[in-house]
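queue> holo job accepted (D-malate)
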Amino acid sequence: MAFINENYLKLKAGYLFPEIGRRVREFASANPDKNIIRMGIGDVTQPLTPAVLKAFHEGVEEMGNKDTFKGYGPEQGYDFLREAIAINDYLLRGVSISADEIFVSDGSKCDTGNIQEIFGNENIIAICDPVYPVYADTTVMSGKTGICQPNGYFDNIVYMPCNESNGFVPELPSKRADLIFLCFPNNPTGTVATKEILKMWVDYAIANKSIILYDAAYEAYITEDNIPHSIFEIEGAKSVAIEFRSFSKTAGFTGTRCAFTVIPNELFAFDQQGNPVAVKPLWMRRHTTKFNGVSYPVQKAAAAIYSEQGKKEVKELISYYLGNAAIIRKSLSEQGYTVFGGINAPYVWVKTKSNLTSWEFFDKLLHETNVVGTPGSGFGPSGEGYFRFSAFADRANVLKAMDRIKNLKY
Ligand code: MLT
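queue> job finished
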């Protein structure tokens, strides 16, 4: 008899984005004449930039030539990419991270989920509410939780509600937390954490021998000064944090797939006897056993974002999406919605009107304006009554969507 992993049975309904996709498909097949504007999942719409594309092509050509062909690459990623990351993403910000602490992968979604595997199931995980659903769902899948209670919270997860009163920035947990997921700029609320806030978290982690799992997938969208782009800008963080970064939202790689995770050499967790164990070799062991690396042309394309031309193009790409976010913010505020985020992030977090629930607003928007967004409650109970607009749509569609929303009847 084959037994299943029963933790999967504890999960609630489907993963959020496929569920939205299902509802939209249903609506589209019943209304084939409607022009649907998608501002739900944070998927990019603008093509790879010329410098990236050129490098990508070159990589493909090299693979087709006997003299430059490459088989399996180094599991941690090619040196040229890890060195470019270490210099451009860290050294130039005054942070010393060495190439050997960087693991190139095919996505931060995979990495933030898979990282759970190297930590014991007795760890108590802390997550924000609302939260990127991957952290919660993979915690459940890994067996670190009990069942889901009627309030939407799983037993053995420490939830940190983020709401208007705390500016959507989590407060320190009231109960023990061994592994803490933080994401800044935040998905879904679009808020950021200052140096002082991150220092508070690093101090907490040091005092409690905890580890912060820091998702910085949206750091390239930070526009305000004095907002850290990396947790490692905070003193002491290298002994208590892992950082996840991605080329997806920075350079349009959602379909191309490339990301990286940084595990500092000085990061230690503990065995059952309380002996310190270095974390990086465990991830290395996992990575080399279960992963064969990202393809050479993709890594070559990713490295191109660090060239002078690549940096310029990425900056333009990000300004384009931030321009969309500014349009969404302005238009919805003028229409009387309360809006958050969208200044240092590609997400605008909006309070629904007339006390509509998030899914009621989703349906109203879909049926009356044919615009798709993401219901806040899909990110956790504290997201109820909120709605997330992704700024990754095409500019013309953003403008059209805002016009259509003006005509919503309450
Ligand atoms: C989102 O819409 O929250 C993101 O696209 C999810 C992701 O990056 O996996």
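queue> The two ends are 56 Å apart (CA to CA).
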